[in-house]
């Protein structure tokens, strides 16, 4: 169902007009910008999916989709894809689904729970991506390349939602975006562990990898007209009950390492690496940056959208 355009009568519920340019996930005037490279294989429209900026077609007259938690969350994703995150309220979502807002609270206690469900659902799209492997089949480099492109496809499919993935309180305090799923963090750490990385090396690689993904993809969605300069939950407090981590033994084992704050070191090391590459480009007279360690070990992937 096509989400209704927010009207002036909704302003009493949440005055978003003054902050729409600042709020996370806000779509700037003119909507989500089209990609500079329309043949990009990671774009949803090039994978047989609906582009994020396209409205969802209305259902047939007289057709009513049964309401449940999954349908509500999918409706919220569709609404944010069309209008931006700050415009999402329970009232507007109810109108988009053809029900009263109070009907939603039977399945989602409130907006925070709704947003948690949205993040979980969006990240879980990785499980349905045929080009992403939950376990490394062709080595850790191939695994990381596929996972990176899978996360990028999520960002391009839901640019207005990706900043939410980056800013919602994590499931565990040492889990870093954009891999908000404990299952995927465990998968990544185990992929490295089983391919010769020590615990320290695995955590260093995990931090560098997530920093690369987050920085690159936030800039990419910002270039497409999505605001990323504020957080949805300024308190940053986790919602819900503490999680049982018994199914994630490697995360528990590496918690002390994962909890360390190495952000400054990571920034300086990344900057130093970039400067070294620029110096090499200058010395050789090349017009291209030399490859990084990841690119030196890259493998050719099948032409399946990666």
From TrEMBL:
SUPFAM superfamilies on file: Homeodomain-like (SSF46689), Tetracyclin repressor-like, C-terminal domain (SSF48498)
HTH tetR-type domain ranges (all copies): 66-126
InterPro entries the record matches: Homeodomain-like_sf, HTH-type_TetR-like_transc_reg, HTH_TetR, Repressor_TetR_C, Tet_transcr_reg_TetR-rel_C_sf
Gene Ontology MF annotations: DNA-binding transcription factor activity; transcription cis-regulatory region binding
Keyword terms, alphabetized: Coiled coil, DNA-binding, Transcription, Transcription regulation
DNA-binding region extent: 89-108
GO biological process: negative regulation of DNA-templated transcription
Region (Disordered): 1-64
Stretch forming the signal peptide: none
Coiled-coil annotated residue ranges, if any: 257-284
Biased composition (Low complexity): 17-33
Biased composition (Basic and acidic residues): 34-48
Protein name (database record): Transcriptional regulator, TetR family
């Amino acid at each position: 169902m096509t989400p209704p355009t927010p009207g002036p009568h909704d302003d009493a519920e949440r005055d978003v007009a003054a902050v729409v340019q600042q709020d996370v996930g806000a779509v700037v005037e003119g909507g989500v910008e089209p990609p500079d490279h329309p043949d990009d294989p990671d774009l949803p429209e090039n994978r047989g999916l609906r582009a994020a900026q396209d409205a969802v077609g209305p259902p047939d007259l007289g057709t009513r989709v049964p309401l449940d938690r999954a349908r509500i969350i999918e409706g919220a994703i569709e609404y944010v894809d069309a209008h931006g995150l700050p415009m999402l309220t329970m009232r507007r979502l109810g109108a988009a689904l053809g029900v009263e807002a109070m009907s939603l609270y039977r399945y989602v206690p409130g907006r925070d729970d709704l947003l948690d469900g949205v993040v979980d659902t969006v990240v879980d799209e990785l499980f349905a991506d045929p080009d992403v492997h939950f376990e490394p089949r062709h080595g850790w480099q191939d695994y990381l390349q596929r996972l990176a492109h899978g996360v990028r496809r999520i960002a391009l499919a839901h640019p207005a939602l990706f900043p939410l993935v980056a800013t919602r309180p994590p499931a565990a305090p040492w889990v870093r975006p954009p891999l908000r799923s404990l299952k995927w963090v465990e998968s990544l750490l185990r992929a490295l562990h089983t391919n010769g990385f020590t615990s320290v090396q695995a955590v260093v690689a995990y931090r560098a990898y997530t920093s690369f993904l987050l920085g690159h993809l936030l800039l990419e969605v910002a270039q497409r007209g999505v605001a990323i300069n504020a957080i949805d939950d300024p308190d940053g407090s986790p919602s819900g009950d503490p999680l049982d981590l018994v199914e994630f033994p490697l995360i528990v084992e590496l918690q002390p390492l994962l909890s360390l704050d190495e952000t400054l070191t990571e920034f300086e090391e990344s900057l130093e690496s970039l400067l070294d590459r620029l110096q090499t480009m200058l010395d050789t007279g090349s017009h291209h940056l030399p490859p990084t360690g990841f690119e030196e070990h890259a493998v050719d992937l099948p032409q399946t959208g990666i």
